[in-house]
Write a structure and sequence with these properties.
Length: 376
């Protein structure tokens, strides 16, 4: 059982509310940096060694906080960005409490988990709790778009660590943590056809939209549920008016795979769909963005420790394999034992009804704190 005292779920929710009410869409680095400022101030007040890496390419800053100690640290890594644009708090997603549920943009994915990580590290330092290893806390700004500017930093810190904890939302009705995830590929496709009048000059045109439609069916045919391979084409666009053969069209492709080999195969098959087809030029860019997170003996050992801590905190902690990716995919691919899905229970990630079961904040935080204190 963790010996650091984290407070009640009521007091945790009160502070978490301040995080949720600072809207942090990935696309607004200034907004993200205001929340980074708050986290940095809280950690500085208890003596954490801080490193702030300025944002680039239109994304916010990264924050690294370290506790004292010898040996390889335990890394806990969470993101502060959300999928929600500004204005959701004052329109259809205000912060509110309805019985056991607390609602708000990004509260489940994943401000509750990142806040619990921050709070655990802050209280370990404030209360001078001994830990078997030093701790590194990493807060990042761009996970929701594939971690383009934080991936190298995540991998740098993971490579120097003994273990990695990811406080992404707990999953399912029982609040499972995650020991495996699918790998994720992302592609963008552009079609360049030939414009023509759809009545008087139809034979002179080459429809980019028709080429798009054909490609969609080919991509969908790659789905193999037995292998754990899925594809999804969205969004799609093309054309301007019904009486114009469309010269331009495009789409994005999402690919999910269970193994590295399947990722390599499906990436090659999708990229091979580029070229000239019936007078339409097809460009395809992208590839595998996150490697699969494969369950290992080491991650199962971490899960057993988390199970015992959860039992001491009064609840059962199941595990699951999840189709969605996280930054844990990067760390597990490096061979660093990784346990994911350690955030709060709830539902509705990326949906208007996003919420947490707020009474679980304290017991979920106890497991995070216990892992940070006892992993050796």
């Amino acid at each position: 059982m963790a010996i650091t005292q984290l407070g009640t779920s009521e007091t945790l929710l009160e502070e978490l509310r301040g995080w949720v009410e600072m809207e942090t869409p990935t696309t607004d680095p200034a907004a993200l940096n205001r929340l980074i400022d708050r986290a940095q101030a809280g950690l500085a007040s208890v003596g954490a060694v801080l490193e702030r890496i300025p944002g680039r390419d239109g994304y916010g800053d990264n924050l690294v906080a370290r506790t004292p100690g010898a040996g390889k640290p335990v890394l806990i890594s969470g993101h502060l960005d959300t999928v929600w644009d500004h204005g959701k708090l004052t329109s259809d997603m205000p912060f509110r409490i309805e019985g056991e549920k607390a609602f708000g943009p990004g509260i489940y994915d994943m401000k509750a988990g990142s806040f619990l990580a921050f709070h655990a590290v802050r209280e370990i330092l404030r209360q001078k709790t001994p830990t078997r290893r030093p701790i590194t806390l990493l807060l990042t700004p761009d996970e929701e778009v594939g971690s383009p500017t934080s991936r190298a930093l995540i991998e740098r810190e993971a490579a120097a660590s003994a273990y990695v904890l990811i406080p992404e939302p707990a999953g399912g009705t029982q609040g499972a943590c995650v020991t495996a995830r699918k790998g994720v590929g992302r592609f963008e496709v552009k079609f360049h056809g030939v414009s023509a009048h759809s009545g008087g000059n139809w034979p002179d045109g080459r429809s980019a939209v028709v080429a798009l439609a054909r490609l969609i069916t080919e991509v969908h045919a790659l789905v193999d549920l037995d292998r754990g391979v899925t594809t999804n084409v969205a969004p799609v666009w093309g054309g301007s008016r019904p009486n114009v053969v469309p010269p331009e069209a495009g789409c994005e492709i999402d690919l999910r795979v269970g193994t590295v080999a399947d990722g390599e195969e499906m990436e090659a098959r999708i990229l091979a769909m580029a070229g000239m087809r019936d007078g339409v030029r097809i460009e395809i860019t992208g590839g595998m963005n996150r490697p699969p997170m494969v369950e290992s003996e080491a991650s199962l050992g971490m899960y057993a420790r988390a199970q015992a801590l959860a039992q001491a905190a009064g609840y059962h902690l199941p595990k699951q394999h999840r189709g969605g990716g996280s930054d844990g995919n990067f760390t597990a691919a490096l061979g660093i034992p990784t346990l994911d899905g350690l955030g709060c229970t709830g539902a509705g990630a990326h949906a208007p009804f996003e919420h947490i079961l707020w009474r679980d904040l304290a017991p979920r935080g106890e497991v995070i704190c216990g892992l940070l204190e006892t992993l050796d």
